[in-house]
Amino acid sequence: MTAQRKFVSVAAELPGAKTKALLERRQQTVSKGVGNNHPLFVERAQGALLYDVDGNVFLDFVGAIGTINVGHSPAEVVDAIKEQAEKYIHTCFHVGMYEPYVALAEKLAEITPGDFAKKAVLLNSGAEAVENAVKIARKYTGKTGIVSFTRGFHGRTLLGMSLTSKVKPYKYQMGPYAPAIYKAPFPYPYQRPASMTEEEYGEFCLKQFEDFLLTEVAPEELAAVIMEPVQGEGGFIVPPKSFVQGVFQICKKHGILFIADEIQTGFGRTGEMFASTLFEIEPDLITLSKSIAAGLPISAVVGKAEIMDAPNPGEIGGTYGGSPLGCAAALAVIEKMQREDLPGKSRVIGDAIRSHFRKLQDEFKIIGDVRGLGAMCAVEFVDPDTGKPAKEFVAALLQACYRKGVVLLGAGVHSNIVRFLTPLVITEEQLQEGLDIISEAMAELSAVSAGAGKAD
């Protein structure tokens, strides 16, 4: 029996009539290469709730793939955008400079990890931030090699997908890829050999990286190492702290720049403003986007001033980079995060999610691992008998939750992981209602699976 819902309200038949009509129009005019996780057209959104064109109300556990940490349409951000739009929408910073760009660069230099002078360049997207970070690193070092890691994700542009590790859907038949990119192995603590302690596993993974610099590419050829402190698309994989610190120290030893890709981990998601703080490292360069501006397209590369000054005028930037609206929104987002301590709220949310699913592990043997930092949480599902990735179960679970009113997203190379990116303004009641709905969907799917097994 479905419990009474306080926030979620969905019709028995999804998608609704208006959504179906829009889907037909979408299929006629939008490239099929633009993926969609659910047949959902949003009419408005507020906080952690999505209201579709048919009047259904969904709990948003995806947050526009980690873009809405401050929630949908926060009043402070909306007001900042309106105020800026009434002054001017765009002048192009290369043509007519504006104070919000400088103010945001100052603020990012202030709040990002690192006790040294910093500068910033503002851009449009996460992938563009990654591309420019690599350009800056190569310009500064005079070297070309870039190391990324297995299961890492750094964007869909040519260089971004060259750095990215998942072939389908991001790279398949899209080559050839950018040269001088090298993939190093990244830890996967859930798959740690049973004979190893956590400490031993961290040492083993660091030894793998040291061997990589002997067998794949010499340190002298490397401009930078780029790493997600917690892998996003790869499955919300949290590496051993000793591994991250060890790689960072190796970079320092050899004059290799360390680029922290905090596009998904940044702005409170992991329980600190930036995940690098949790790993106690001070990256040479850091890439930022997603939740920087509550959904407006803007990104940044922030780093040591002398490194950021390596490019000559005109070598980095772009027509729309650091748009006035994006800058105004970002400044309002940062102020709201600090005033309301949303990183602290992230820790509370994450504890609740992980506690919920760890309690379910005895009942649902298909839950292989529950992990995360702050509100960047994941549940990995595996066949309890074979240990193989339960990809089909996750696909069915995502659809079942959608039909019940919770929007979820998968992750991982094997697509057998459910990731949680709830807005950090979600209320305790909303979070619990969503978790209860997911548990209900899991129970129903498990019952169907058990029935099918008996029938066989």
TrEMBL record:
PROSITE patterns: AA_TRANSFER_CLASS_3. InterPro entries: 4NH2But_aminotransferase_bac (IPR004632), Aminotrans_3 (IPR005814), Aminotrans_3_PPA_site (IPR049704), Class-III_PLP-dep_AT (IPR050103), PyrdxlP-dep_Trfase (IPR015424), PyrdxlP-dep_Trfase_major (IPR015421), PyrdxlP-dep_Trfase_small (IPR015422). It is an enzyme of class 2 (transferase). Keywords: Aminotransferase, Pyridoxal phosphate, Transferase. Its EC number is 2.6.1.19, 2.6.1.22. It comes from the Bacteria. Belongs to the class-III pyridoxal-phosphate-dependent aminotransferase family. This is (S)-3-amino-2-methylpropionate transaminase. The gene is gabT.
